């Protein structure tokens, strides 16, 4: 309220707001989508789960209809033939957030900055875990957090809710077992770093100037990020250096098989029912179908999309 924001549901129409972050939990315990949706129905006759299987090829007939899928498992190639009404399904197996508009927004109340706050106990183990998580240089975060080890703290993730930079996903070869080539292309558009720096300033204002955070004694670490010591601490140049040296993905890539119209849209892959354009019997049901990146976590939207598509096709057999 001190920031002039209303509490709203982030899963609805997204405007400038603050909200509790949705988590996949049940009675205080972390619950995966497997545990919530798949595990309770493992005994169904029309469900067969095969782990450590790699899809190899989708087989079409002369009318471009999917008739079979081949997959590898335990060093052997297996083939599943599809009957009408059934088919294999292949799967790749916080606490508070806020949305803000940026000065570059094309319209008012069009959030481009997402802040999410996560509490942590600062320890040497935590620093090492974060280095492994973000694949940073060994010792980088250990040095950055050294002065605060033993303290209670929280991390603020400043997220580009609507980045203008686009990454690229391309095939390395026709071999399905070879990893694709992924180029995230972070901060390639000049507006993105400007919005990111605005997000940092929004976060600093919220955590250092509001009574809510003053009551819990919140303060920013006094340590400078390694590699940015030559800049005046907390200056615009310092934060520019920080953002460019510690910029990471939120692990929510999307849009590589996006939804669109079959005519006049060369980038479209699936239609509004997630059917692959130009084929019969083939759907894509994951985050790749999203036409645009969502501003916040897309877990809720993705789970709803999956649940809706399987609920209207109850006879699908699954090979995961």
Written description of the protein model:
The chain is α+β, with helices and mostly antiparallel strands. It is globular. 22% of the residues lie in helices and 19% in strands. It has helices spanning 33-38, 124-134, 140-145, 190-209, 211-214, 236-245, 299-311; strands at 17-20, 25-26, 29-30, 54-60, 66-73, 76-81, 96-101, 111-121, 152-160, 168-170, 181-183. Mean pLDDT is 82; it is low at 312-320. The strands form 4 sheets. It has a 4-stranded antiparallel beta sheet. Strands 4-5-6 form a 3-stranded antiparallel beta sheet, with no helix packed on it. Strands 2-3 form a two-stranded antiparallel ribbon.
Order of helices and strands: EEEHEEEEEHHEEEHHHH
Report low-confidence residues grouped into runs of 5 or more. Answer: 312-320
N/C terminus separation: 46 Å
Record field, number of beta strands: 11
Mean pLDDT: 82
Task: Summarize the main sheet.
Answer: 4 strands, antiparallel
Helix content: 10-25%
Counting helices, strands and paired strands, the structural category is alpha+beta
């Amino acid at each position: 309220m001190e920031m002039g924001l209303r509490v709203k549901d982030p899963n609805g129409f997204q405007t400038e707001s603050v909200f509790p972050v949705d988590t996949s939990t049940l009675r205080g315990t972390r619950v995966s989508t497997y545990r919530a949706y798949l595990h309770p129905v493992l005994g169904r006759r029309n469900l067969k789960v095969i782990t450590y299987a790699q899809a190899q090829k989708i087989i079409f007939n002369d009318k471009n209809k999917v008739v079979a899928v081949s997959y590898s498992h335990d060093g052997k190639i297996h083939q599943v033939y599809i009957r009408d009404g059934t088919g294999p399904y292949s799967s790749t197996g916080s606490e508070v957030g806020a949305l803000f508009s940026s000065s570059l927004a094309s319209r008012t109340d069009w959030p481009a900055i997402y802040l999410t706050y996560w509490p942590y106990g600062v320890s040497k183990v935590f620093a090492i875990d974060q280095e492994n998580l973000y694949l940073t240089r060994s010792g980088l975060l250990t040095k950055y957090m050294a002065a605060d080890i033993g303290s209670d703290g929280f991390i603020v993730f400043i997220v580009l809710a609507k980045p203008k930079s686009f990454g690229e996903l391309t095939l390395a070869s026709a071999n399905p077992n070879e990893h694709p080539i992924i180029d995230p292309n972070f901060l390639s558009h000049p507006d993105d770093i400007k919005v990111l720096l605005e997000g940092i300033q929004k976060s600093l204002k919220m955590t250092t100037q509001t009574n809510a955070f003053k009551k819990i004694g919140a303060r920013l670490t006094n340590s400078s990020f390694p590699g940015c010591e030559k800049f005046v601490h907390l200056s615009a140049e310092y934060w520019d250096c920080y953002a460019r040296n510690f910029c990471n993905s939120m692990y929510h890539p999307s849009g590589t098989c996006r939804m669109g119209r079959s005519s006049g849209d060369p980038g479209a892959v699936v239609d509004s029912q997630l059917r692959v354009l130009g084929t019969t019997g083939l759907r894509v049901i994951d985050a790749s179908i999203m036409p645009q990146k969502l501003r916040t976590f897309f877990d809720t939207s993705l789970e709803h999309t999956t649940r809706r598509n399987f609920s209207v096709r109850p006879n699908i057999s699954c090979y995961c």
